[in-house]
Amino acid sequence: MNRIYLDHAATSPMHPEVVATFSEALGAVYGNPSSIHGTGRAARKALDHARKTLATSIHADDNELIFTSGGTEADNLAVFGTAGKKDGKHIITTVIEHHAVLHACEKLERDGYDVTYLPVGENGCVRAEDVKNALRDDTILVSVMMGNNEVGSIQPIAEIGELLKGTNVTFHTDAVQAFGVLPMDVDNLHVDLLSVSAHKLNGPKGIGFLYQRKGTDIAPLLYGGEQERKRRAGTENVPAISAFAKAVEISTTTMQEKTTVYKQYKTIFKTVLTKCGVDYKENGSNSMPHILNLSIPGIEIESFLINLDLAGISASSGSACTAGSIDPSHVLVAMYGEHAAESRNSIRFSFGLGLTPEDIEQAAEKTAQISQRLALK
Length: 377
Prior knowledge:
15% strand
C-alpha cells in the first residue's frame, strides 16, 4: 500500500540534500567549536557559516541567534528568560498558542505571575486591538504565535509589533510552524524574540534557535559553559546545525514555488470532496498554504483517523491523545466553544515534501469514501 503522508505540520521528512549534509558533518566535523586547535576551528567555521545562513533567512545579525534543542526550548527560553530578567508580573498571550508557550505561562501563574489569555474569533485570529487593550503598566511580555499549527491562521504579528514599539514590553512570536513557509524579516515584524525549529521544514529533529534582538535581555535556562555568548550552555550540535542551515537554504529558494503548489493541493482536495458530495467546512481563515483543517459533520474524529490510517493516509486532528481518548483541540474550542461539533469532527491535512497532485486526489477520494461510510452509521 502506498502510504500518503499528510501530517507535515507535525513533523516533516528530511530532504535528501539535508540528509547528505547531516551525514557528512557527522563524520567530518567532530571537533568542539570552543577548542582552539585546528579540529575545533574547523567545527567553529562550520558553525559560523550555518549561523550566518540562518540569521540571513530572517534578516537578523549572526550574534542574535541562540541555538536550542528545538522549538519547545526556544519558546521556554523566551518566556522564562524574559520573566527572569524583567520587573513586572504580567504576561499577555493567546488561547491558541502551542503548549510550549501555554504550559510555560501556566507555570509562571503558579509562581505568582498574572497571565492574560486573549481570545480568538471563529477565523482563528487574535486582534491587535485586544493586545493593546490588555496592556498594563506591569506587562513584561507579549507572546503571540505567527501561524497556528492546527488551523494555519496567520496572526497579525507586524501590527502587534508596531503598537508595542516604544514600550518596555518584550514581544515574542513562536514562528515554528511558519518558518520556511512565510517570508520573515524581524525588523518589519518588530519582534524582539522569535522561535523556530528545523524538523518542520525538512531538517533534523532536536535543533532550533531563538532569535534575540540586540538590547533584549533574557535569563538563561541552562548553566554550564559559555557557549552561545553565555546565553545557552552546552556544546553546540554542529552536524544538526549545518543540516538545519541546508534545510533553510532549500526552503528559502523554493518558498514561492511551494506556496503555489500547496494552494493547488488545497484546491484539489476540496474540489474532490465537493464532487463526491461531502459536506465540509474549512476551519480558520487567512491560513498558511500547507495546512488544511476541515470540519466534516457526522463523523467522530477518533474512528475517522483510524480508518484513514488503515487506508494508508497519515493525518491528524490537532487534538491531544490522553489515556487512550482524544480530547478536543484547545484551538477549535477557542474558535467555536467547548461543546461545538467542530471540536470533535475536524481533521488537519498538511502538505510538504514528496507529495504529488495524484497523491492529494487519491487521499481526498479516500477521505470522501470514509466520511460517507462513517456518517451512515
